[in-house]
Amino acid sequence: TNFFPTPAVSFAGRKLDRSPEWTVTAGITQTVPLAGGANIQASARTRLSDSYYLSALGTLNQFRQPSFTKTDLSLTYNAAGERWYLQGFVRNLENSLVVSGASSGAYSGVTLQDPRTYGVRTGFRF
Question: What gap in Å lies between CA 106 and CA 11, rounded to an integer?
Fold first, then answer.
């Protein structure tokens, strides 16, 4: 049997994967009490990231992720005693395209993080 190991790949002199020069993360949550013990909670979280590189494993190919901003928003009604809640939310408000993985070979490609998503959820707390 012939054994053909993949040759070692050196990334000497290349930028470290997933290492932007800078990132900024900020968030705020504000709770407004309502009569009867209920409350409304508004939340915003945002992340700004400089561009960075991702490598396809086993090759010398690097993909560049441009700088981006991703913001998540939610508005939650919490019933008295916080026994149940109703929440509206938006994730990735800007609909930013963010690469989460890369591959190359016969077919090169990237995997993207979720696009803008939104919805309503409810829950009960025991």
Answer: 21
Classify 22 as helix, strand or coil: coil
* d(C-alpha 82, C-alpha 69), whole Å: 32
- 3 domain-assigned: no
pTM: 0.81
Query: Of 60, 53, 56, 54, which Cα lies nearest the Cα of 7?
Result: 60
CA-to-CA distance for 15 and 114, rounded, in angstroms? 25
Q: Locate tokens 């994730």: which residue?
A: 91
Mean pLDDT of the region 65-89: 97
Place of tokens 């790949």: 9
- What's the domain count of the chain? 1
Asked if the structure places residue 17 within a domain, the reply is no
Which neighbouring-strand residues pair with 35?
A: none
